[in-house]
Amino acid sequence: MMHAGSDMEDRIVSEKFRDFARMFEPERIAVIGVSAEGVGFGRGVLLALLSMNYSGKLYPVNPRGGTTAGLKIYESVDAIPGSIDLGIIAVPARQVPRAVEDCMNKGAAGVEILSAGFKETGTEEGNALEKKLCELAVKGIRIIGPNCFGLYNPKTGLTMLPGPDLSREPGPVGFISQSGGLAIDLAHVGKWRGIKFSTMVSIGNGADLRETELLEYFGSDPETQIIGMYIEGIDDGRKFFEVLKSVSSKKPVIIMKGGQSDTGRRAAMSHTASIGGNAEIWKSVINQCNAVPALDMKEIADLSLAFSSLPAGTYKGISVIGGGGAIGVASADVAASCGIGIPEFEKSLQDEILALLPRPGSSAKNPVDVANPRVPPEILKEVLIRSARNSAVDVQIIVQLLHHYKPVTFYAPGITVHDATPTAQFADAFSEAAAVTGKPVIAVVPDFKQGLDSLDIAEMLRDTRRRYTEKGIPVFDDIQGAIKSIKAVSDYYSRRRYRQLNFN
Amino acid sequence: MMHAGSDMEDRIVSEKFRDFARMFEPERIAVIGVSAEGVGFGRGVLLALLSMNYSGKLYPVNPRGGTTAGLKIYESVDAIPGSIDLGIIAVPARQVPRAVEDCMNKGAAGVEILSAGFKETGTEEGNALEKKLCELAVKGIRIIGPNCFGLYNPKTGLTMLPGPDLSREPGPVGFISQSGGLAIDLAHVGKWRGIKFSTMVSIGNGADLRETELLEYFGSDPETQIIGMYIEGIDDGRKFFEVLKSVSSKKPVIIMKGGQSDTGRRAAMSHTASIGGNAEIWKSVINQCNAVPALDMKEIADLSLAFSSLPAGTYKGISVIGGGGAIGVASADVAASCGIGIPEFEKSLQDEILALLPRPGSSAKNPVDVANPRVPPEILKEVLIRSARNSAVDVQIIVQLLHHYKPVTFYAPGITVHDATPTAQFADAFSEAAAVTGKPVIAVVPDFKQGLDSLDIAEMLRDTRRRYTEKGIPVFDDIQGAIKSIKAVSDYYSRRRYRQLNFN
Fold this sequence. Notes:
The structure is a homodimer.
Chain A: H1 6-24, E1 28-32, H2 41-51, E2 57-61, E3 67-68, E4 71-72, E5 86-89, H3 96-105, E6 110-113, H4 124-138, E7 142-144, E8 150-152, E9 170-177, H5 180-193, E10 197-202, H6 211-220, E11 226-231, H7 237-248, E12 253-257, H8 262-272, H9 279-289, E13 292-294, H10 297-309, E14 318-322, H11 325-338, H12 347-354, E15 368-369, H13 377-387, E16 395-399, H14 406-411, H15 417-420, H16 423-437, E17 441-444, H17 455-470, E18 475-476, H18 479-503
Parallel strand pairs in A: 1-2, 1-5, 5-6, 6-7, 9-10, 9-11, 11-12, 12-13, 14-15, 14-16, 16-17, 17-18
Antiparallel strand pairs in A: 3-4, 8-10
């Protein structure tokens, strides 16, 4: 069956990826282990798929039969009419190998195993069951998991646990995660921050499909332009290094590595049976491959957003425009600490900007302190247009403490904070400024007022984020996140360019 | 008038502090520059004082006279019957020196000047006006500002701009800030995180009253147990160093230093006319004085909360209990990076804890992965009680991803996420566990689901924070903040003890 030659290798690769596509965008799914009532894993994922309006056909399976949520429950996988593309398995660990075999016999390209009770338990039985899964995978079915939250594919509505409310809008970010919890949280964060995913894979213990092969897949997937990863341990370091280096030369790969400390490794062992490596080696791998390191989920989200919204390029200087002097000072300190410049504006430009702003209290050296947290949208637009004239400014950051619109409502009965805040006009002003100047505008909109009496502010801020995002203005929660992300994007592209010039 | 001898010095010091007390807890306030309508600074602060139910008497002043908000407006300060303790000045910069003189003649201990247009403008006129203020201060009135947001004192209801809705509950944290914006934001954050303030002073340009003298005051104020500072520049480095060293030996002093970079210093110059120092020197000052450095407002809040809620002591080891393996892994990595131990539990203790938890999926080595984000309160209480038995555990952290109660509502019509989440029972369980074991319990309750469709989760989380806080369980937003704060508290007390043993 084996042939030599690179043509054949190409064909094998593309065939492998055809299987991936069948799993990630399945037309026919068997959900194995669905009870007629309750919200166990099996019925939970079935209801989530229905809630997401999954585009294909669903076949619940349970030996007891019956119906649930208006669907017939099949007594066995074999009883399903026709073939299936994907099996979602949520039966007790001991019954899992049999369910995998059933799916294989039914022509499935792969299965996702939500059940736990395998290698991560550290028991003999768990290890033996996981070994059995590996043997089945070799026979011709791809396995995601066990001990995972499954797959999320916005295009088809295939959703992971417990995700009945994820976005159906596909986008450029592919995500591979050894933690299901982190994956589902990121999927939610992405929904409201405008980070759109191609496919998200929670690999759990990674008995078969793991980080390296999936990274290779996303590297070649035309719908994926940015790759994110949460990794606790790596199966084959050598191969991973090669694939990461190759993929990173084409697409940014954002990686959070859990378990870099001794205790972290112990926790990772209990979590997904992963064996992590040394922190120093890891750092060197990241550097050599030009991968983009992330410290936590928030950083993965910040970086995914920055890579999704900033054009490929080098960003050396920024302007920071906002009300509140301490924010300007903090921005300057953060920028300096990560090597981003905040060029001081020439005197004539300062005067032009100052003429637009409330006096006294404002300052236009850059950072620009607009002195009042309620400067109108049309003024901020003009400030942005003028600030962009400084040739050392590559990106502009606008910082808004919008909770300062709340006091207006104390003195104007019947006006809500939502009414008082010109959110839509800000969104237009910033996107117009970006269009006119050709320099991206990023918004930082912190959410400081988190009391029970400020739910109206929370609602206004969430609506603001939605509107800005729709107009192409990415929104960050804090200055640190915004500036560090700009720096990471800039570093990635400038290093990639340098390497291309020097090594190719 | 001057006498020698230490008794006299004590009397002078206490007299100075008597003036401070009159300013910070005034019984009679003149608000100078109050228009009959609108929400300018003057009328804004008057309305805020009324909204806060300020306990003393208010005398609005404006040459035009009239009434506002049911109060007579006096045509001059002189026309106010009797004396005043504090003048709040919100007239244009050129009229400020005259207003200060008027307050002095009326017997005021001090004034706060909200008006801008002084040294921070960098103009000749601004500099001259500020010099004039310094000359007046020498004549016997204390000045806060100019270009500041004023004073906040929960006990009396004296409030800063724009704070009509701050807490009236006094507490142990004194705060000195060169940024009014940062101060008012921290006051709000404190309200919902249970950080209670003695007095907060926004010093703005600090023409007269500044960081060093206020630090000395808070150092000797029996109501202040923890001191926080946001500083851009220091007036007298030598004196500040001595006072900081002395005060830090009695009370923790948390300091955020803005303007440590060149650009940051430029921004600070425009903000509050401050001249900052070198970052290396600053770091050395912090170390030598055993002050507690903070990077941003969130860290000031985290540290204030930790110092307010943890008993003075050394905290070397923690347990981390939560649902979601990646959180355990991340906790372990953060703890390792800052030198906090997560002791591995002995096998018998692991077995005892595992017997309480859902299987498979859970792990009890420490971090304890409870496998399910909806483990009931009574089980978590038992896990906390058992985990505390390990003698290397000094504090316990419970991590809760409470948004996972939302899916319950998808399948149970009529049930809200608030109904579904046993918040009150969790609060009881954790505080009982802390009482039984004598080891503090800290909660980490992240707010990941920030969409417009998750305002119900926001409400539930805010209520959770309120209930936990009321029961003495401090709540942090993220693991990093919780663990780093524990470490900072531990370091402060162990260094203080070491210095006392070695130098006294």
